[in-house]
């Protein structure tokens, strides 16, 4: 009987100690598997994503309709979402915006029309450095460095063409597993610390069929871009505002550029700064050149949204102060709940192994009586 108790306690201790290593933002299954999300009322397909979909995730469609995921079947990878509301994106200052469009159309130089003169610095990195584009790179994943790195480099060069200092860190974070975001977090922190950066862009590509991402921009083949916001981080509202501003500008500049915005369960290191964004540059089924072409237009939209003074709350060069963020407790509620569930389950297992079948049921029954009595006393207070 003593051996059973010892074994049970050791197992419970191991589970609790390993819990902290089990969390991840998300990771893809084998290629070819992806979620399909439908409107729960009409049955129309809303979107597809290779990221994990969970209840509570939200989705802003290309026409600015907000949906919330209400049901998920992880086996079939089918989910359903309900319509919540129509969203009005941040209002653009037309005079400031037109001056920027004039500069772009006449090759005058966007940097000459930006309201923010200083601190125009962006940090770029790739959490999933092996991601690639099969038609161009020959594989969907290349451990030594995927095509996504070339897309990120193209984004860097496009930023620099608009007077924005862009620093791209191509540090490898392979493998593509549940620890990738923890490894890339070190890269993101170093980018911020070493370069005085408060804007971070994590460059990815999706793993769904190509059709939904294919588009043309200025008559040239390109890919649409999905913005991804992590719901489990303290900067969620600021990250959302940033995404809305990017989409507001892009919808006027290049209506086919921003595909949609997905509010996923993870944190994606966006707790590090209010100006953090994850971008999905198309998908692995189309050519890398399409994604590289889109970086030209994405850099225009990002530069304008971040530094152009193009919103009614940014007149006269006013910009929001980026304050240092405290260490995030994102996901702590989920972790605590999981921990309590494991401890509770382990306690029941311990009772069963350390007592006879009848005796453990008696102990559980007594515990329920005591717990109900405790709740009764609490309600009377």
UniProtKB/TrEMBL annotation:
A Pfam family hit: SpoIIP
Signal sequence range: 1-23
Transmembrane segments: 333-353
UniProt keyword annotation of Acetylation present: no
Keyword Transferase carried by entry: no
Keywords: Membrane, Signal, Transmembrane, Transmembrane helix
InterPro entries per record: Spore_II_P
NCBIfam families for the chain: spore_II_P (TIGR02867)
Name of the molecule in the record: Stage II sporulation protein P
Taxonomic placement: Bacteria, Bacillati, Bacillota, Clostridia, Peptostreptococcales
